[in-house]
Amino acid sequence: MSLEEEIVTGPCLAALVAALALFPATPPQEDEGWVTHRVEISPARAIVARGSMHAEKGTSWLVFHDARTGLESRRIRFGGPIRDLSFSADGALLAASRDRGGVALFDTRTGNAVRELGGHEGWVFAVSLSPDGRLVASAGKDRTLLVRDAASGEERLGKTLDRYVGRLAFRPGRPELVVALHHGALDLVMLEGRTTTLAEAIPVTSDMAVSADGRWLATLHSSGELRLFDLDSVAGNAEKWRVKAHEEKGLAVAFSRSGELVAASGGDRALRVFSRENGARAFERKSRRPLLALGDDGNTIVGADYDGGVERFAWPER
Fold first, then answer.
1. 214 contact partners, CB below 8 Å, separation of at least 6
2. How is the chain split into domains, by residue range?
3. How large a percentage of the chain has pLDDT more than 90?
4. 3-class DSSP state for residue 103?
5. For residue range 175-192, what is the model confidence (pLDDT) as tens digits?
6. In a 3-state reduction of DSSP, which class is residue 247?
7. Is domain 205-291 annotated with CATH 2.60.40.2470?
8. Which phi-psi region, left, alpha or beta, contains residue 133 (left: φ > 0; alpha: ψ -120 to 50)?
9. What is the pTM of this model?
10. What pLDDT, on a 0 to 100 scale, did the predictor assign at position 77?
């Protein structure tokens, strides 16, 4: 894989000013030919990552922003469209899926690519890093689900599915993976291979989040519907509630650190927060732009748009 790092910023103000002179805060979106496929916010290191590609030129970039300011801090040339992104819990490792059957792993502190994992044929639609950064799960157009050791590339699980996978998420503290099948079911896959179906005939899953304690799963759908599942419940009884969170497509979902609140953003530019206990709406605000990624920064909800721009909202008091 050919990677070319364009910016490396440091704590020096002069270096930051020089970097911004080369690349404004929101490139390359100023050119209408650029399309951002995925935006992700790191859980702990206040980084926004986005994958952008020029539709005509075929140029693709992995772009990092400071989540406190929204300013671009690093840009890396990437070989092909970036379909999905996933951070480790400490934000030190980032996985980016490729259109050519692979997943690239990056050290976010240096911007260096540390490993590339192949194994798929064609697009890799979804990728997820385990919270400790030791395992990486990926699923592609070939309908294969792979779980591998991030350091060695050794395969831990290989499973052929009957449908495409839309989203993946590891369950913290457990050897389990939540798999959202495109136009279909929501499954809980154990790393030894056993599968439990949590729900069937669900709308397309735009995003999903697992609470820090590993018990609760929130799924946000293209229909604007938000659902909550108890992953400790027996199969068929896992869904606890569902609400119409947005009138337009759901975009991103995140838990508060306590797991008591769930935030959801949509194409209607609304940010809404719901009680995990009963789905009651606790908070609503309008964002400047649709927020493609959400994260928790302790007392605030961090939202990022397709340019890497950042908005912050205080969590409502419980």
1. 171, 172, 173, 174, 231
2. 205-291
3. 51
4. strand
5. 999 999 877 789 999 998
6. coil
7. no
8. left
9. 0.86
10. 84
